[in-house]
Amino acid sequence: MTVEKNDTKNKIQDAAERLIIQGGYGAFSFRDIAEEVGIKSASVHYHYPTKGDLGSAVMTRYINEFSAQLPNPNDESLDPNAMLEGFINGFKAKIVDHQNMSLCTMLTADKHILPDEVSAALAAFYNVKIEWLTLLFMRLASLQEVQAKTQTIQFLATLHGASVLVQATGNAEFFERALSYWRMVYVK
């Protein structure tokens, strides 16, 4: 694949990701993406025959980029408290500080209209987070896997719920207040 073709595909995915974050999966068309990228709608279809193909590609890229940033939760040379703090701060910087909803929150809101391949990629992303955090909580609190997974689910519910609350109210302080328990107990 040529560099130019890759560049066009990345621009298309960038535009799709922005449009999903701004209005959800159902709020954009290939024509919207073509206009934003400066190409013809047929060129978008050339790279991604269906909207489901494009949505799945956006999620796959998102998963790969996210996964590449995660340190190994079992690496004994890394402080698990610092890893959790980094996870919280990274989420805050990407979502709360930019006054956005996350790509995955927007896709979850549109789950009822997502093609199967996009739903599968969305579930895969959450599974990456769940698996990583479960391993981290096993280290942080010396928990067995089942209890660590429960901690993970509670933590993710707090994290995502806090971001929704901030967006709904415009009060960024609510994020820190919602995460204060996790910071107090695990980040210290």
From TrEMBL:
It comes from the Bacteria. Residues 29-48 bind DNA. Residues 6-66 form the HTH tetR-type domain. Keywords: DNA-binding, Transcription, Transcription regulation. InterPro entries: Homeodomain-like_sf, HTH-type_TetR-like_transc_reg, HTH_TetR, Tet_transcr_reg_TetR-rel_C_sf. This is TetR/AcrR family transcriptional regulator. The keyword Transcription applies. The keyword Transmembrane does not apply.
